[in-house]
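Q: Please design a sequence for this.
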């Protein structure tokens, strides 16, 4: 595989890693970058491999979340020995994650083919960027009037399920999973940091599931020639996601969602003016 192809994989992995957990839509950015500049479908030889690559490199971002939240995942899976939790103390449980995953998980399975066929297109991504930005602005304005659960351990099952319902919007490429779920968390009474923590933790099983399903469905399209492309994208996504997550978690309670919403709208307008 040519060096230029590997460089393109690294660029797409970088875009994925830097945007997956910021509320700006990693899928939307990858579709825009790929459609307008890189055209991975041409050098990979199939739109199915290209679309699956965009899902598969999310595994690199998932690994970065696991690294950052490793202690939390150890507790959720009950792998820490002799851990004593004080009676009556609230804590995030695996069942909270499952409740939050159910709505988008069901819709994703039912409509995956339709989404892949019709919504992985730049013009629909631009619409998703703007609509998602509007939701984020509404969440920020509402948060000033809302009581906040400061830590993710304070989340209730009702809040988790409501966030899960709002996460369904993220099935629309360009809307942003983190944008939808952080906004949803803020709207139901979580602080921005607590909503971000819940978003990142909840992202691991749903992204791993989506990647696994895509891999199995498109296994026939993979070749050894494409393997270096996938590995390069995976490593790039992991490194840049690790940097982005640590930075974003320090930033989110200070700047809220508004700067990201403004960026999304400006990006959509610029792309529309230049390329349509």
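A: Design:
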């Amino acid at each position: 595989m040519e060096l230029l192809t590997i460089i393109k994989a690294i660029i797409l992995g970088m875009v994925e890693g830097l945007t997956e957990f910021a509320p700006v839509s990693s899928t939307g950015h990858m579709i825009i970058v790929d459609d307008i500049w890189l055209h991975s479908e041409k050098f990979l030889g199939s739109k199915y491999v290209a679309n699956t690559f965009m899902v598969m490199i999310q595994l690199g971002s998932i690994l970065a979340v696991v690294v950052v939240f490793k202690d939390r995942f150890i507790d959720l899976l009950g792998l820490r020995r002799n851990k004593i939790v004080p009676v009556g103390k609230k804590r995030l449980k695996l069942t909270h994650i499952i409740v939050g995953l159910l709505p988008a998980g069901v819709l994703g399975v039912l409509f995956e083919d339709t989404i892949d066929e019709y919504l992985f297109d730049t013009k629909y991504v631009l619409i998703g960027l703007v609509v998602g930005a509007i939701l984020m602005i509404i969440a920020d304005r509402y948060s000033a009037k809302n009581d906040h659960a400061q830590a993710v351990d304070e989340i209730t099952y009702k809040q988790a399920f409501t966030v899960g319902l709002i996460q369904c919007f993220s099935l629309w490429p360009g809307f942003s999973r983190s944008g939808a779920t952080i906004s949803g968390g803020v709207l139901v009474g979580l602080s921005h940091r607590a909503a971000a923590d819940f978003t990142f933790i909840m992202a691991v099983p749903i992204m791993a599931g989506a990647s696994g399903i895509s891999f199995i469905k498109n296994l026939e399209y993979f070749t050894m020639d494409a393997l270096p492309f996938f590995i390069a994208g995976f490593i790039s996504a992991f490194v840049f996601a690790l940097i982005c997550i640590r930075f974003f978690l320090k930033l989110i309670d200070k700047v809220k969602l508004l700067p990201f919403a403004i960026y999304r709208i400006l990006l959509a307008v610029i792309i529309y003016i230049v390329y349509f």
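Q: Thanks. Anything notable?
A: The chain has a mean pLDDT of 86. The CA atoms of residues 115 and 270 lie 25 Å apart.
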